[in-house]
Amino acid sequence: MTQGTLHALDARTTRPAEFGRDALIVCDNLVRIYRTEAVEVQALQGLDLLVDAGEMVAIVGASGSGKSTLLAVLSGQDEPTAGRVRVGRWDLAAMSRRDLVDYRRNTVGFVWQQAARNLVPYLSAWRNVEVPLALAGVGRRNRAARIGELLDLLGVPDVADRRPGELSGGEQQRVAIAVALANHPEVLFADEPTGELDSATTDEVFAALREVNRALGTTVVVVTHDDAVSGRVERTVAIRDGRTSTEVLRRPDEGSSTAEEYAVMDRAGRVQVPKEYREALALTHRVRLALEADHVAVRPDRG
Ligand SMILES: Nc1ncnc2c1ncn2[C@@H]1O[C@H](COP(=O)(O)OP(=O)(O)OP(=O)(O)O)[C@@H](O)[C@H]1O
């Protein structure tokens, strides 16, 4: 064995595995800066996020925390300033215009908050779902089969002949989900899909999204400002100041389910200590860290 081969083997064994290699969605130190003449806004400030295929994840956070920017980047409508972002086989930081069209038409589906943005007002629900299928060149018979299947799955087969203006808010969003799913996307992105709905209708739309996730296996990423959402999905990721800050995981537990909140540690080992904790113990600039048998203690610097 030559010295060169040894070096090559050595390099291979010591190189760390690629971050998120097995995930469907990878955001690695994602940065998005908006520059205008007067100001510079850092909407995403080194955000890390992994989503596995088949997951349903809610993204929550205060207004301005970067939720919509994240979704815009992930869905190919906005470009990252720095960092790595991958969805399936697509590297979103390095896509040609042609790739983008392909990606947006076939890999991802999108639902907006405003029903008017999702649906064509003068077409029936049926025809609305037909538009993306026709654009993708799907034949008449297959189109009909797919539309029927989706309207059934979303619980709106009875409104097929009605126009959006003749539907309730919840029905409009369920038809919008059908439109977004028409071409079998791997991922469904929804930006505040229930923002204009009351809480009963919100439950209905979340139930529809869960059903899509369960029955079709579509990965669902839904942005919402509604904190109660962590009771409706298995994983809720909170964004603060353009970074992921905490996650709530809900696990089935003998019939009901339990939810537990976790802080997110970034790849450099940084964890954000909540403001209430910092204030309660006057934790400021310098703190003492101690490694205990099963936890790490953080103490104020009283010296
Ligand atoms: N096109 C833009 N030009 C300049 N600044 C922008 C632009 N889009 C977003 N921002 C800024 O980036 C930050 C993050 O905005 P973003 O819309 O992603 O937040 P959000 O969490 O979705 O908020 P909301 O819940 O209010 O929709 C905000 O400070 C916002 O003002």
TrEMBL record:
Whether Zinc-finger counts among this entry's keywords is no
> Which ranges carry the ABC transporter domain?
25-266
Instruction: State the GO CC annotations.
Output: plasma membrane
- Any Pfam family hit: ABC_tran
Q: Does the keyword ATP-binding apply?
A: yes
Which keywords, in A-to-Z order, does the entry hold? ATP-binding, Lipoprotein, Nucleotide-binding, Transport
One GO MF term on file is: transmembrane transporter activity
Protein's name in the database: ABC-type lipoprotein export system ATPase subunit
